[in-house]
Amino acid sequence: KAGVTQTPRYLIKTRGQQVTLSCSPISGHRSVSWYQQTPGQGLQFLFEYFSETQRNKGNFPGRFSGRQFSNSRSEMNVSTLELGDSALYLCASSLGKGGLTEAFFGQGTRLTVV
Amino acid sequence: ILNVEQSPQSLHVQEGDSTNFTCSFPSSNFYALHWYRWETAKSPEALFVMTLNGDEKKKGRISATLNTKEGYSYLYIKGSQPEDSATYLCASLNTDKLIFGTGTRLQVFP
Question: Chain B: nearest CA to A110, how far in angstroms?
Fold first, then answer.
């Protein structure tokens, strides 16, 4: 069974640009969550999607958005990039919604904003 | 604001030593507590998901306990091995969001 796949693995962007990250969950998983990790911080929750609907959103500005498609694949978009957006972005899929079952993580996308 | 605290921040032990870490979480509106192991250059991997007060789970040499009334969980590793070196994350599901701690970084020296 294929794991959670995130693309691209690495990305370098300049300030002001926008970026789209992709996450393909494990087959059959309908919940996809996104997290940001910066040095010294724990995984910060961005949002969760279940069956194409955003269930929850973390405390991030509106520049961070996402969506989920009918095949459960999810994309995350960050517009007007800032230097502070440089981070590892992880997505995780799970069978059920809301964190009641274990999450399976992808290897992440390392975004560098210069 | 929900805070999940983990201690210690880092730990160095000798091969064969047993060790334990602590995760503190809000006890109100609690639904589940997760533990993950995150090895360098890999993805976080689920160890346990626990929901009931007094729950104890075990996987090989690793075990965890849960106290939902006082808001803490312990992770134990018996007879640490170099391959146990990783960052151990806990996450608490309160209300509707899974909130992660900053992790305990374990290094096991041969």
Answer: 11
